[in-house]
Amino acid sequence: MPAPKNLFKQALKEGRAQIGLWQALANAYTVEISAGAGYDWLLLDAEHAPNDVPLLVSQLQAMKGTASHAIIRPPIGETWIIKQMLDIGAQTLLIPMVDSREMAETMVKAVRYPPHGVRGVGAALARASAFNRIPDYLPTANDEICLLLQVESRAGLEALDAIASTEGVDGVFIGPADLAADMGYLGGPGAPEVQAEVEKALAKIQAHGKAAGILIGDLSLAKRYLELGATFVAIGNDVTLLANATTKLLDDFKNAEAAKPPADAKVY
Ligand SMILES: O=C(O)C(=O)C[C@H](O)[C@@H](O)CO
């Protein structure tokens, strides 16, 4: 029995758009709720959310058997962190802040077992191999890992051809918030100058035959990126959804009129 088939990776290879939702509430309960909504993927964020390895395990477990594919974003692209994320069972990783071919090649090696990489062999202890109950996990794991790299700086854009053409990189994600900040538009990913670079980058990634991805809360922009060929697009995040909904409910209540009882209402 081989490593589980990575259907998300397969969908990207076939050019089938995958719609995602960012998860930053760092708990299994809300991830399970989000997974029930039917998103193609959920991003479990360990860069900007208070996620540690045990919490990520609980979120992966909450997603098991749902239609949503789990993608983990580690806090940084470090080989030892990637080893842990793969061993707990993530098959798709989104690595932040990649800005050179050298880093892209290092990440490819980090997600592969020798001789094609340097991933440490701990499958006998790992959730990834169903605790060693997948007898052929070691020889089949590499092929079912989907490696997505984030380009989100001017240096990254400069190196985009090199990054996207690196063998073993399955997709490149443009981080609009950090790219905007690095371009001098902190808090303004919608600035025309930033949007122009985003669209050029999405085209360049596809020119190398790789999947292009992005996160954007503006649904019309999300649709535009899909029309431009992006195939893994996140359209929101759990924190903002919860914060906005709770604020709106109280505002709505404060502004609501009390219902007027029907004229013939009997008080007793
Ligand atoms: O730079 C970006 O944009 C991203 O990488 C996504 C953000 O990190 C996400 O947390 C929303 O702000």
From TrEMBL:
Residue ranges of domain HpcH/HpaI aldolase/citrate lyase in the record: 18-245
Q: Which GO terms describe its cellular component?
A: cytoplasm
Q: Which GO terms describe its biological process?
A: phenylacetate catabolic process
Quickly give the catalysed reaction: D-glyceraldehyde + pyruvate = 2-dehydro-3-deoxy-L-galactonate
Which InterPro entries does its entry note?
Aldolase/citrate-lyase_domain, HpaI, HpcH-HpaI_aldolase, Pyrv/PenolPyrv_kinase-like_dom, Pyrv_kinase-like_dom_sf
Q: Could you tell me the EC number(s) of this protein?
A: 4.1.2.52
- Give an example GO molecular function: aldehyde-lyase activity
This protein's cofactor list reads: a divalent metal cation
The answer to whether UniProt assigns keyword Oxidoreductase to this entry is no
Q: Which UniProt keywords apply?
A: Lyase, Metal-binding, Pyruvate
List, alphabetically, the Gene3D superfamilies matched: Phosphoenolpyruvate-binding domains
Q: Which domain of life is it from?
A: Bacteria
Q: Does the keyword Ligase apply?
A: no
- Give the family per the record: Belongs to the HpcH/HpaI aldolase family.
PANTHER family listed in its UniProt record:
2-KETO-3-DEOXY-L-RHAMNONATE ALDOLASE, 5-KETO-4-DEOXY-D-GLUCARATE ALDOLASE
Q: How is this protein named in the record?
A: 4-hydroxy-2-oxoheptanedioate aldolase
